[in-house]
Amino acid sequence: MVGTRGVPARYGGFETAVEEIGRRLAERGHRVRVYCRRPADQAGSGDTVDPDVYLGMERVVLPAARRRALETLSHTALSVGHLLRDRTDVALVFNSANAPLLPVLRAARIPVATHVDGLEWRRAKWGPVGRRYYRAAETASVRLSDALIADAQGIADYYREEYGARSRLISYGAPDLSATGSDRLAELGLTAGGYHLVVARFEPENHVDLIVDGYVGSPADRPLVVVGSAPYSEAYTQKIRRSADRDPRVRMLGGVWDQELLDQLYANAFTYLHGHSVGGTNPSLLRAIGGGTATIAYDVPFNREVLRDAGTYFRTTTQVAQRILTAEADPGDCARRGTALALRAKDYDWDVVTDGYERLARDLAARSTPGPRPFAGRRSPAARR
Known about the structure:
- This protein has helices at residues 13-27, 68-85, 102-107, 128-144, 153-163, 208-216, 234-245, 259-268, 283-290, 301-307, 317-329, 331-345, 350-365, 381-384; strands spanning 33-37, 52-54, 57-62, 91-94, 112-115, 147-150, 168-169, 196-199, 224-227, 250-254, 271-274, 294-298, 312-314.
- By secondary structure, the protein is α/β, with parallel strands linked by helices.
- Helix 1 (13-27) packs across helix 13 (350-365), helix 6 (208-216) packs parallel to helix 7 and helix 9 crosses helix 12.
- The longest helix has 18 residues, at 68-85.
- It is globular and about 60 Å long.
- It has 14 helices and 13 strands.
- It has two domains: 13-173 and 351-384, Rossmann fold (3-Layer(aba) Sandwich); 183-345, Rossmann fold (3-Layer(aba) Sandwich).
- Keywords: Glycosyltransferase, Transferase.
- This is Glycosyltransferase.
């Protein structure tokens, strides 16, 4: 498994998927190797490879350039170099940004599937050059992968319509947080059902600023708890903080890496507000519904695919305020929505997800995958019609 920050999962959706899928594959008797980035505080050390074992997975720890534009690709390049020396039957590459390394794997005759994630070129954090790069990398992933992995139907539809490309639809799993307690909330001065929650990296397409602004403009009774940070988005982080500083009801917690405490925050929130707009199926959203928490989400197909009619949706600050006030005015309906979402979460099962990855890995090793569409390019609007 190549292209993520690795395990233990402490960052985002890819890392969560790698940990949940990788440990299950290891339990089933497969040898699983995960390439991991060295923490920033170790980046200057002389030792460049630190193998270890975590939940049955072999970890290979390598450095990465500490610049946003180079971090992912630099680490993946070192990972691929290691992979050529210590070969495997199959490589699973996460993030289409790593597409420039795919020719190396193909030349080495290592079957490879690329998890293409969301539409990275639409992310506001990238400038014109970055967006052009991600657009080109997306096309290269279609051309050079033996298989594509999509984690949401909307992503699979996009690659079919844009490239005429096949993909394996394998979503993420939702944890069952139904038995999660609430005793840790007192550490933060919170009580079960007594707060609204946001958990997100501070990036424009996650709309944390819109959520905070909408909340600040409402007369909501319950405080808004904001969990998250961003390593490369200081200006955006400051924008959020300026809004939050205007209202003592907003609690900015920064990153919360204690998984037990984070799970209790998800499972005991009155509502969870989810602003992600350009990814596929989001693990943070699945964690919230796994806790049976009523969810107010940014209105895009990926979020509607998960929440369906049990969710409520927003696009503007005014709508954020309205959805929060509606929830507070009718706690019974809010609880019913949470119960419906807990049932919906059962459709997202990590064991079933792992079955999909196991089948894909066997197909790749047997070289029985038909490929997405070799040498495909973006289709014209007329062709897509």
